């Protein structure tokens, strides 16, 4: 499992504070986020109305519902499924690094939403680099460039491998 980075966690908390315009409690990173309330407030500031109900009282199960509502809102906002953490990653502190990566993914995605004008998290996303070549340019380059298929065949080969799935016997 990757190691936690206190500098990244601090940056995430500072970003959340700036977005929700609310001072966060002076607690460890995972404790601030654990009940999901601040996460729901965060997504509601970024995309208003994303989470309709934020539970502020109750046991562990009610707090897990906040985290699940946040995760559903992330999916609707466009955060890729593979970048969203599992509920237990946060509530049971199984993989806090994944929580941080997920929040960075959200911060990165806000750059693609022009309606969001708040503070940014993480590096600036690259702009599209469209290239338009004329037919003459494409034809000229195809004639002058040597393709990789015309490359060299004197290195290691798979001869003696024996087929897909087999190990090589030496």
From TrEMBL:
GO molecular function ontology, one term from the record: actin filament binding
Keyword tRNA processing set for record: no
Protein name per its UniProtKB record: Calponin-homology (CH) domain-containing protein
Q: What does this protein do?
A: Thin filament-associated protein that is implicated in the regulation and modulation of smooth muscle contraction. It is capable of binding to actin, calmodulin and tropomyosin. The interaction of calponin with actin inhibits the actomyosin Mg-ATPase activity.
Q: Does the keyword Transcription regulation apply?
A: no
Q: Name one GO cellular component term.
A: actin cytoskeleton
Q: Would you identify the family this protein belongs to, as annotated?
A: Belongs to the calponin family.
Tell me the Gene Ontology biological-process terms attached to this UniProt entry: actin filament organization; actomyosin structure organization
Keywords for this protein:
Actin-binding, Calmodulin-binding, Repeat
* Record CDD domains: CH_dMP20-like
**Which residue ranges does the record assign to the Calponin-homology (CH) domain?**
6-110
Alphabetized PANTHER family for the sequence: CALPONIN, GH21596P
Q: Which InterPro entries match?
A: Calponin-like, Calponin/LIMCH1, Calponin_repeat, CH_dom, CH_dom_sf, SM22_calponin
Enumerate the transmembrane spans: none
Q: Which PROSITE patterns match?
A: CALPONIN_2, CH
């Amino acid at each position: 499992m990757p190691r936690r980075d206190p500098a990244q966690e601090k940056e995430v908390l500072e970003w959340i504070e700036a977005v929700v315009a609310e001072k966060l409690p002076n607690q460890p990173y995972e404790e601030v986020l654990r009940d999901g309330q601040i996460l729901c407030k965060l997504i509601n500031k970024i995309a208003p109305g994303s989470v309709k109900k934020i539970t502020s009282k109750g046991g562990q199960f009610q707090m897990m519902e906040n985290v699940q509502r946040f995760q559903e809102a992330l999916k609707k906002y466009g955060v890729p499924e593979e970048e969203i953490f599992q509920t237990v990653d946060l509530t049971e502190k199984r993989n806090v690094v994944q929580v941080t990566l997920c929040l960075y993914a959200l911060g990165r995605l806000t750059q693609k939403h022009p309606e969001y004008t708040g503070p940014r998290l993480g590096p600036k996303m690259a702009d599209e680099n469209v290239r338009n070549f004329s037919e003459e340019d494409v034809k000229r380059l195809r004639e002058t460039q040597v393709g990789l298929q015309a490359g060299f065949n004197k290195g290691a080969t798979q001869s003696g491998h024996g087929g897909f799935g087999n190990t090589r016997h030496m």
